[in-house]
Amino acid sequence: MPELPEVETIVQGLQAVVKGELIVAAQQSGLKMRAQMVPNFSKKIIHKTIVEIYRNAKYIVIRLNDDSHIIIHLGMSGRILIGEDIAPSKHDHLILHLASGIRIVFNDPRRFGTVCYSQEPIEKLDFFKNLGIEPLSNAFDSTWLSKATSRSSAPIKSFLMNANIIVGIGNIYACESLFAAGINPEKPAKQLKRKEIVKLVDAIKQVLASALASGGSTLRDYVKSNGDVGGFQHHFQVYGRKDQACFQCTTPIKMLRLSGRSTYYCPKCQAKR
DNA sequence: CTTTTGACCTGACAGC
DNA sequence: TGCTGTCAGGTCAAAA
User: Fold this and answer.
1) What is the rounded distance in angstroms from the CA atom of residue A117 to the CA atom of residue A40?
2) CA–C1' nearest nucleotide, residue A108
3) Closest residue (CA to C1') to nucleotide B10 in the complex
């Protein structure tokens, strides 16, 4: 479940449970992920303590007491489970055993995700070199966005999903934000009017924040029962709603393919022009 | 340079 | 009960 709100939700769940915890054992699958992981780093993290966990873009960063870091990216299908008795399963790639008996398990069937370990400052890692702006930061405002869009002729939806420009917005939240702003996903970024830019910034912050709030509401269940996370899927206005009536105007939602991704929009509420 | 496409993987689901 | 095709929340290298 890996866009900004989901990653942030998971990070908050981890923070609540494992801060200050000692790692007593660790196991890795050793299978090849998106980026080659440091082989057998599990040995290097044993007897170290987790001092800080935070999110950078869609990456989860776990800082240890010697300032080394474990970096996890969930890719498309990655999950993190936290609990005392998690049954081992097929695509577990990293299992951390903590002194309290709690385990943190990173499971990713498709292996589009990443697990790696770094003893160097993390800014040196390629992952973090070309990342764009955090959409929930104060720096992300209409002034910033209008400057950034003015240089791009790409469809606004592809623009929003480009992590070199803005981080954390994936396929779902790009669709939902554009609907909330009433903007057609195919519209070239540089053609957005000032008014649309203002609306879009607002929509993105609103959508991400309310998704985060929904994720947070099921966080406790997630941590305790290892079940599913997030309740925002019940609030989707367009994502996955092809041919269903728009909640605003009852026009059937349309789907098109944009940069290889399914794109949902209301042809009336998000008319071109 | 910018933008799009294809590749990376497994699993779930629809239709035959 | 298969089998086949399609689709899936991301990112990167390569092509256009």
Assistant:
1) 10
2) B10
3) A110
* A208-233 tens-digit pLDDT: 999 998 874 444 444 444 455 678 88
Model-wide pTM > 0.85: yes
- Which bases of chain C are contacted by protein, using any atom under 7 A from a CB? 7-12
CA distance A136 to A235: 20
Token pair in block for residue A196: 């649309």
**pLDDT tens, position by position, A181-191:** 999 999 999 99
The integer distance in angstroms from the CA atom of A112 to the C1' atom of C8 is 12
Active site residues of A: 2-3, 58, 261
